[in-house]
């Protein structure tokens, strides 16, 4: 497939990981995690794929010396249970099929190296249209949940959560 991009198995640098998440409107890791937690987390990936612009490559498998990844995606887990995370595409490179190519790489890797795995993900609204194309289904009646002290301890997050809970208590008619 001739394309202006090359998708390779490998890890982004911690800074590229941070920047791609931020630019793709995903929560970036906090500054205090950049020195130890982020590199350790990246190294612990079950699989990771990154995309580069072909025109800056040294050869088919080697990014240029100052070249940065323009898209990425990772699988985490033990081979029986996997979580698909960090599918991020730089805004300047979106709508060019990179998200699809990263997904094809991740799903293909999981199918080949962990064919019995239960692969899960949490989809942002934009991804909810993409992921079913790769066999992902809604977990209803299950509900996705999370725990993150730095986010849940944030004052704005607490206010939004309390407002959401109050609205749920009122129900569709508007009163409790």
From TrEMBL:
GO terms for molecular function: N-acetyltransferase activity. It comes from the Eukaryota. InterPro entries: Acyl_CoA_acyltransferase (IPR016181), GNAT_dom (IPR000182), GNPNAT1-like (IPR039143). Residues 18-162 form the N-acetyltransferase domain. Transmembrane segments: none annotated. CDD domains: NAT_SF. PANTHER family: GCN5-RELATED N-ACETYLTRANSFERASE 3, CHLOROPLASTIC, GLUCOSAMINE 6-PHOSPHATE N-ACETYLTRANSFERASE. This is N-acetyltransferase domain-containing protein. It comes from Karstenula rhodostoma CBS 690.94.
């Amino acid at each position: 497939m001739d394309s202006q991009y090359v998708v390779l198995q490998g890890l982004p640098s911690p800074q590229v990981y941070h920047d791609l998440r931020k630019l793709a409107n995903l929560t970036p890791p906090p500054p205090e995690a950049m020195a130890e937690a982020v590199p350790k987390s990246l190294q612990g990936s079950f699989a990771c794929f990154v995309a580069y612009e072909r025109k800056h490559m040294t050869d088919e498998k080697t990014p240029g010396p100052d070249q940065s990844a323009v898209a990425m995606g990772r699988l985490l887990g033990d081979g029986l249970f996997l979580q698909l995370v960090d599918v991020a595409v730089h805004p300047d490179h979106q709508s060019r099929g990179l998200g699809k190519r990263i997904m094809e790489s991740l799903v293909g890797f999981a199918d080949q190296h962990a064919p019995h795995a239960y692969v899960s993900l949490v989809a942002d609204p934009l991804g909810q249209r993409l992921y079913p194309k790769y066999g992902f289904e809604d977990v209803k009646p299950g509900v996705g949940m999370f725990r993150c002290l730095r986010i849940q301890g944030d004052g704005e997050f607490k206010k939004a959560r309390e407002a959401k809970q109050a609205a749920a208590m009122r129900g569709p008619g508007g009163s409790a």
